[in-house]
């Protein structure tokens, strides 16, 4: 008799959930056989400023700058099939973080509203965090980026400094 009561209790606990599961979005958010951890927001836009990331390691500039003005978002991570900018350090996640350009409205001093496209950083729930100006960022949250901000991924010693074409040297 107790077994029947337990089975009935279990069935009552397993009521259907009509909450969004994300399964449908996951199926449509695949690139080269990999399900992306990130979906671009509706306000995603290509930037109108030519942003660049300068990569430093131990104070030395590595290679040419990374030009990040040609698309609306850039994925950083170890998974080379989907990462726009590979981070090969073992402490970096396969899909570590993303820089997303978003169109935002700003109120001008005269009261008029203007639209600007600004860069934002989001950690995608990485194991070893993403750092903005030496401070860890919370996962799944946008942080506005500004000129001369530095970004680090995991325990990598590489630093990415954000500048644009009009930045003073």
TrEMBL record:
Biased composition range(s): Basic and acidic residues: 1-17
Stored InterPro entries: Cell_Proc_Reg/RNA_Proc, FHA_dom, SMAD_FHA_dom_sf
Boundaries of every FHA domain copy: 74-137
PROSITE patterns cross-referenced by the UniProt entry: FHA_DOMAIN
Chain residue ranges for the region called Disordered: 1-21
Domain of life where this protein originates: Eukaryota
Name the UniProt record assigns to this protein: FHA domain-containing protein
Species: Punica granatum
